[in-house]
Structures are given as structure tokens and as C-alpha cells.
Amino acid sequence: MFQADPQLSRALARLQPKAKLDLQQDQLRLVLVESPGQPDMQFPDIWLRDNCRCGECYLPQTLSRLPQLWNNLDTSVRVQQQSVDVEQQLLYIQWSDGHASQYPFAWLRERDFALAHRTRYLSDFYRPAPQHWSGLEFGHIRREFQYQELLASDEQLQQWLHQLAVYGVALVRQAPLEFDVLRRLCNRVGFMRRTTYGDEFSVRAQPGASNYAYLAAPLPLHTDMPYFEYKPGVTLLHTLEQSDSPGGVNLLTDAYHVADLMRERHPAQFRVLCQTPVDWADIGRDGDLEFHNIWRAPVINLDAEGRYVRINHSIPQRDSHFSVPLEQVRPWYEAMALFVRLANEQACSFKTTPGDVLTFNNLRLVHGRTGYDDTDHNVRHLVGAFLDWDIVYSRLRVLRNATR
């Protein structure tokens, strides 16, 4: 026979009218009457059982649940009795499987299933919601940071990472003309992403270059390394020397904005670029390392909810292999021609100077530059590096938690 837990009985005795519970159709609603204007909190009962905070179910030092419950999970478990202790700010539940749980109000508030709370968590704490921009709006969303301040101030570091997460681009100014600038900046976030081109890499005109970026010719808009399944998330480009010729001008486009335009005005072509896999490849050698990288993915990549997660585009690094049915080829070319035209129309342009570090979201922005004259006395030399978004978002959350 079911026997109520003594702790639950004491809590029932202290139940006050300042809070009330409503359990209907497996959903528990907690109303805090003493907090006017505070919305009701909503929780599925099976989720509460899965997230019990007692020592049998949860390990504090790892901040994670223990697996025992899931060795024989009873999905028919139901709330047997429930109460709140407003003084202690605790919710008590006695379960149909005989288990007893308690949950702090503060912990529950952070995990409320109400739509407004879930929306706020996903667009703020989980990952700041991106704001898309046109080329004409670049002057309004552009923001600059000082290199030394990013190294010294966590507040400035947080603002820089937030700018990257929301708008996808930020310019760091007055960095020393030293080769380890990007390493020091990346170490403030976490660590660099190594690729087949090493940790840092030099971007300058090279005779017999195996990569199109190492030519002085115009570099069309592209994303870096679409041939990687785990494509580097953030590109950092440190200008050490800048060509005195009229060329070498940076070009940037928010490809998420281009995708918005296609989704709204050209839905058929938008679907083609979302659904047609493309072969991206990079074949060559860097130092002693010989490589042949291939990844197949559409130009526009969506998640399960239809949001953009990645843009793939690089004319030189699109393989001649196109592993799709014949009837899909021409529609893809027509849709891609539209994408490239819109991306060029929406591009903004500016020219970095020595000491500038251009940082941008490589999953979202397409970038390029105009051609330039390259001679012994007119050199353009950049150092590049990458960060992964997992590392960036992790650091951003740590910084935000420290200021809460």
C-alpha cells in the first residue's frame, strides 16, 4: 500500500495560499500568487520525475542525472501527491512509484516550459538570435573593438563574442604587427581550430599556389573550407601588410539575408539550394601534408525547425563531381546563379589596414576581395586562424554567468 513520505506530510501542513498547484493531463502548473505579474510555471510530470534532484537520481559534482532510473524507466509514472512550501521555496512531489522529490523554485523558474520562457532561453542564453542585415545596413551594425581591451577585459570580450553571434562580424583594431596576435586572441576564448593548413596560416600571393586565396587575382565571395564536415565556425584575419594598390578591398555579405530574400521572393530556387547536395573538395599539399578533403552538403543548410545553420559556397572548391540525378542539375545551376547575383548585390566593401583583425561567422557570411597588384615593394600579407562556435558559445555563457 502507498505510504506518504513524512517530509511530504510536513510540507502539506505548511502549505500556504501564496502558491497553488494545478495538475491536469500530465501537466503540472505552479502559480506563485505572491509574485504579481509573474507568469505561471508549467512542467510535464514525467520530465519532473526524470530530473529529480535527490542523491539517488542526481550527482552534484558532475551536474548531471544518474542513469539508474533509465535502466528500467517507467513511463507511466504519475504524481501521487504534490505541495509547495513557500517559506522554503520548494515544490514537493510524491510519485506513484514510491519515490519522493523536491525542487527549488529558482531552479524551476530557469526551466519553465511556458512558451515565452522557452523562446527567451533559446534566443538569449542558448545562442543569441542572429539578426540578418543587407549590404546597405552594414554601417549600422558594424562594431569595432580594441585588441588590448579584449585581452584585458572580460566585459569587452563578452561584447565582442555577442556581436559575432548576433551580427556575424566585428573588427578588432590596433593589434600589434606580430605573428602570434591571433593565437593570443583565440586563447582568450578557448583555443584555435587546427586544419590541414595548420593553426595560423599566411594569406599572401605565392608563386605556384595550390589554393585560390593565395593568388593576387580577385577572390569571389565564398565561405572558408566548405569541404569539411565540421567546418571552422569563426574566421579571423589579421592584416600585417596591406597593398598600396587600389585593390585588396574586403567584400562581405550576410548570406542568411540572401537566403531570406530567396525564401521570400524565389521559394522554388530556395528549396533547390536547401535540398540539392553539392560535392565540395580541396586537393593539394601544405608543407609535408598531402590532403584530399570532400564533403557533400547543400548550399543552404537548415535545422529541424527551418532555421539556417550553415552556408556552403566556394566556386573554386566545388568539385567537378556532382552526385545528383541528371534532372536536378540545371535547376541547381539556375538557383545558384541567382544566389551568387544576390550575394554580390548585397555585398559591403571596406579595406583593412595593418593592425586590423577582421572576425566573422564563417557558417553565415560569404567573404572575398578585389584583385590587387603584388610586387616586392607592394605586398599584401594577412595571417588567418579559426575558432569553433562550440568554443565561442561556451565562453560566452561562462562570461554571462559570471555577471549574473
TrEMBL record:
Its cofactor is L-ascorbate; Fe(2+). It holds the Pfam family TauD. One of its GO terms (cellular component) is mitochondrion. GO terms for biological process: carnitine biosynthetic process. GO terms for molecular function: 2-oxoglutarate-dependent dioxygenase activity; metal ion binding. InterPro entries: AlphaKG_dependent_hydroxylases (IPR050411), GBBH-like_N (IPR010376), GBBH-like_N_sf (IPR038492), TauD-like_sf (IPR042098), TauD/TfdA-like (IPR003819). Residues 29-109 form the Gamma-butyrobetaine hydroxylase-like N-terminal domain. It comes from the Eukaryota. Belongs to the gamma-BBH/TMLD family. This is Blast:Gamma-butyrobetaine dioxygenase. It comes from Drosophila guanche (Fruit fly).
